[in-house]
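tool_log.txt
---
The assistant was asked to compare two proteins side by side. It first ran the structure predictor on the initial sequence, then on the second. Raw inputs and outputs are pasted verbatim so the downstream comparison step can read them without reformatting.
(1)
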Amino acid sequence: MSRARTSRPFSRIARSLACFAWLVVTASPGTAAVVAVEAGPGALDAALRDALPGDVLELLPGTFPGPVLVDKAVTLRGRGGVIDGENHGTVLRIRAAGARIEGVTIRRSGFDIGAPDSCVYVEATATGAVVQDNLLEECAFGIWVHQTDGAQVVGNRVHGRAEVRRSDRGNGIHLFNGSNLIVRDNVVATARDAFYVGATEHSLIESNRADDARMGIHYMYSYSNTIRSNVMTQNTVGIALMESRHLIVEANEASDNTRQGLLFRDVEGSQIRRNRLERNGVGMFFFSSVGNEIIDNVVIGNEMGLKIWAGTKDNRVEGNVIRGNREQVFYVGSEDQIWGESGPGNTWGDYLGWDQDGDGIGDRPHRVDSFVAGLLYRYPSAVLLLRSPALELLSHLSDTMPLLRVPTVVDVAPVITETE
């Protein structure tokens, strides 16, 4: 009995000491706090000045004037507050590593795309910064990520200025000289280029949407990146890949773009797989690109399916569905392009061969008629003869007269059974 009576007060004292220790820890100056910030001149600047790393500043309804500098690892969280740049300069600049901007409406940057004026500018020192679920309106550049490592741009909606001529707008999300970036689930409209990626490596561009831009996704001098499951519609060009290497471009959709759905120029060592290119001016345009794998893409319903220009060679082109285009292939080169040598070739909407042994592969190669393409390349004025009986006759004669034959695309194992 006595042991039991003495143990109870000891237990109560131990619990009291533990609670006291927890209170001391949670009340220590280094502990994160959630601070509600009311709108008003200078209110956000004062809150940022007083904040400690890890604090969460919740912006209550109202307007907070820009510019805003985030130079501590804090979180700015929208609770109805709007940060307004009033058409001057960059609205919000992130300088601190680990800072987060989430759920905030940010609007009205300046107009100078040379400065560059942005709604959000992520500096090189902001390693691991996160810009998430924000609404950005009336921006020159929407989000500019500059020489940053490990930043994430996720779930934002970015709108440029529709009244500004497209070439005078900035880009929606602009990545420059970054690495290990994640850009996912963003929606961009009314920008120059919706997503611009320059000199950036080891990054992911995934599940984004873009419309009403010059180029939906524009890659320049960027290596070892993945472009996956993006939807690019009603732009001038859906996806443009230039001067880049070791890209994975898969499961994207580019439709209703006025010029090209997918364009790649001077691209090497890349995998272009399972993309759907539909109702574009040109479905896929290769230019001076070598050593790529172009596999299992669907190219249908375009004005021109594939346009293949000089300098393009040594690519593995297999498993693609190419049908229902007004013109299947336009090829200009000095020698035949041979496809399907290492396995089944491609499915062609205009293949006229047969499959007597039932193995799903045509018994004779598919040779694309490129007589007209070569003639138009050498003599552009011949476009006036398109669909004329004379040109149709010459095109048919080119199949039997070696003198008229020009280099073309030859698929040595065309697929009979179509799969999409």
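(2)
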Amino acid sequence: MPVEFREYLRALREKKLFVTTMDLRTVRIYPIAVWRQDRLWLASSDDPDARDLYFLANDMGANTEMDPQGRVLIHEDLRKELGLENQALYLVPWAWRLDVYPEQVYHERKRRAREGAPEKLQRMEAKGLK
């Protein structure tokens, strides 16, 4: 786990994490307080897609904690469902969660991110990116 994210998690009052998937391709690791907020939003939504994501996240998810070495256990059912064993995994920190990408999914995402990068940057700067 990246040092910055480890330190962020260690500084939280509540140490529990929620580890799940919502796309059956990547793992999402949430501090439990952040997951509670997303869970409430998903569960209270009138959108059937949001309710399906809530169901899937709960079905595939589990509570855990970071160990003293900064490792987070991805439970066996989730590892098997996503085929995470015996391959490289890539960690991508977002604002309030950490995503875990299997190698193939990471490289697909990397390719998409690079496509039209100058135009994407120009559009985002027009929207306020500094």
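---
observation on (2): The chain has a mean pLDDT of 89. The longest strand covers residues 16-20.
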